């Protein structure tokens, strides 16, 4: 939430490990500050192709402050989802740096709809 009460909404790269949603962000970012202040979070993932689908997730976020070496496997896995296996090591190394944190969201509520335009 912004200081004036507006929600803080930004796109993120993430993975789902079967239980939690996992992403990384700068430890000093507005996103990290907001999560430290209020760990209840929400996110929406949408399918931009016809016939359109979405999932809305509410959950509790926890932060782990890990070393770049510990962050690297997460960073590579996240990057692989977005840039493919060929470039994942490059993006993973770029993002697993000092000052980055790992955020895990344990879902508490999930709402989804598939094939909305059918």
Structure characterization notes:
With 118 residues, the chain is of the alpha+beta class. It has a single domain, classed as Pnp Oxidase, Chain A, CATH 2.30.110.10. Helix content is 30%, strand content 36%. The protein contains three helices and five strands. The chain has helices spanning 30-37, 68-83, 85-95; strands at residues 15-16, 21-26, 40-47, 53-64, 100-113. The chain has a five-stranded antiparallel sheet with strand order 1-2-5-4-3. A hairpin with a 4-residue loop joins strand 1 (15-16) and strand 2 (21-26). Helix 2 (68-83) runs antiparallel to helix 3. The longest helix has 16 residues, at 68-83. The protein is globular. The termini are far apart. The mean pLDDT is 94.
CATH superfamily: Electron Transport, Fmn-binding Protein, Chain A
The dominant shape is globular
Strands ordered across the widest β-sheet: 1-2-5-4-3
- Tell me the CATH topology: Pnp Oxidase, Chain A
Q: How many DSSP H or I helices?
A: 3
Distance between the termini: 35 Å
Helix/strand class:
alpha+beta
Give the C-level CATH assignment: Mainly Beta
The CATH architecture classification is: Roll
Mean pLDDT comes to 94
Helix fraction?
25-40%
Looking at how many chains there are and whether they match, the oligomeric state comes to single chain
Radius of gyration: 15 Å
Low-confidence stretches: none
Number of separate strands: 5
Largest sheet: 5 strands, antiparallel
Q: What string, H for helix and E for strand, traces the elements in order?
A: EEHEEHHE
């Amino acid at each position: 939430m912004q200081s004036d009460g507006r929600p803080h909404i930004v796109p993120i790269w993430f993975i789902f490990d079967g239980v939690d949603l996992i992403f990384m962000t700068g430890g000093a970012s507005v996103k990290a500050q907001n999560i430290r202040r209020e760990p209840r979070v929400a996110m929406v993932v949408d399918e931009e192709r016809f016939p359109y689908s979405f999932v809305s997730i509410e959950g509790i976020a926890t932060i782990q402050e890990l070393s770049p070496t510990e962050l690297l496997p997460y960073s590579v896995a996240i990057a692989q989802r977005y840039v493919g296996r060929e470039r994942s090591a490059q993006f993973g190394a770029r993002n697993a740096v000092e000052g980055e944190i790992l955020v895990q969201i344990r879902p508490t509520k999930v709402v989804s709809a598939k094939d909305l335009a059918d």
